[in-house]
Each structure stands twice: as C-alpha cells, then as structure tokens.
Amino acid sequence: MKEEKKNNSKSFVCIIVVICLVFACVLGISIFMFLKQEPKEINKKYDGGEIELTYADDSNIFSITKATPTTDAVGMKMDKEDQYFDFTVDSTFDSALEIDYEIYVEKVGDTSTINDEDIRIYLEKQNSGTYESVFEPKEFKGLKKKSALGTPKDAMVLYSGNTTVDVSENYRLRMWMSDKAANSSTSNDYTVEVHVIGKAK
Predict the structure, then answer these.
(1) pLDDT, tens digit, for every residue of 67-88?
(2) Closest Cα to residue 190, out of 83, 111, 137?
(3) pTM value?
(4) Out of 3, 27, 143, 190, which residue is the most buried by the measure of CB atoms under 10 Å away?
C-alpha cells in the first residue's frame, strides 16, 4: 500500500515536472520569436485638420433639366429651389496651423446633354448674410492634370481657399445654359458632382 502511494506521488511529481517543462519551452519559444521579429513601423496618416462638405440636398449632385438659353445677368439671380445648390465647407483644426482647400465640380457625363462650352457655372460665398460672387460665370473646363491639392484631372476648380481657424462657410452654386447655345438638344440637361479637397499643414 505504501509502495503504491509512493509510486502515485512519483507519477504526480513527474506530471507536474513535464507540464512545467512544456510551459517553459512554449514560453521560451514565444520570447525567442518575439525578439527575433523585426520591429513593425505603424504608419498613421495624420494631417492635424479636417475639411468637410455638407449640403442641404440628399446628395452632392446638382442637375439642371430642360434648360433654355439664359443670359448671365438672369442666371446669376435665379432663386427657385431647383435652380441653385447650397452647401457648407467646414474646417476643423487639431494640430495643424492652416488648411488649404479647393472646391471643385466633376461633370456626370451620362446625364449631361448640354455641351461643356454651352454651360455656365457660377459660385457665390456667403458673407455677413449676403451671397457674393467668388467665381464668375464660366463654361465647364476640366483640368489637364491633377492639381497640387489633389483635385482630379477633368474636374473644374471653382474656388481655392485657406483658413487658420475652425470655420463654417456657406456657398451657393448655380448653373444654366448659355444664351449663345445652339439649343439643339430636346432635353438640355447637365449634372455635376460637388466636392471639396484640402491639405492641412
């Protein structure tokens, strides 16, 4: 009986020793593998500021449909709800000192039947409650290459701004068909997407 208990005790001690050895081996291998690994560099894009575009409509898309030839003098004052597109550019700072930004539009080709040279695009910025022109009426002309801030090729820059403080600025975009257009299409539609891009520094 005593011999049996002695053997059981030895077996128990052996099991404990084996478990400890296995644990020590696993721990040793883990430490070795960790030390052998090359340190990973975690890259986090952090520009210290944010620029954001918000809009009153359901999306950043602005369209005109069944347009008729219109003079600039009339187009700049169109005030029906479907004749302009209101949006806001919000600049928020963290650690940056200033933010440069561009407001641009991209033509949506599959829903645009008016020729680029026959469209007129006009942008105003709100100042003390009144909208003032910051981009006089011009035809749509896309960039030949991407801008320094990142506005893509074929997009059209309407406004370049710079700010050093948190600010919300309101803009109003209008489009119409030029009074010099041939008016050859039966639909006379034109659609753009409105964007903002910025760089904090």
Answers:
(1) 999 999 999 999 998 899 999 9
(2) 111
(3) 0.73
(4) 190
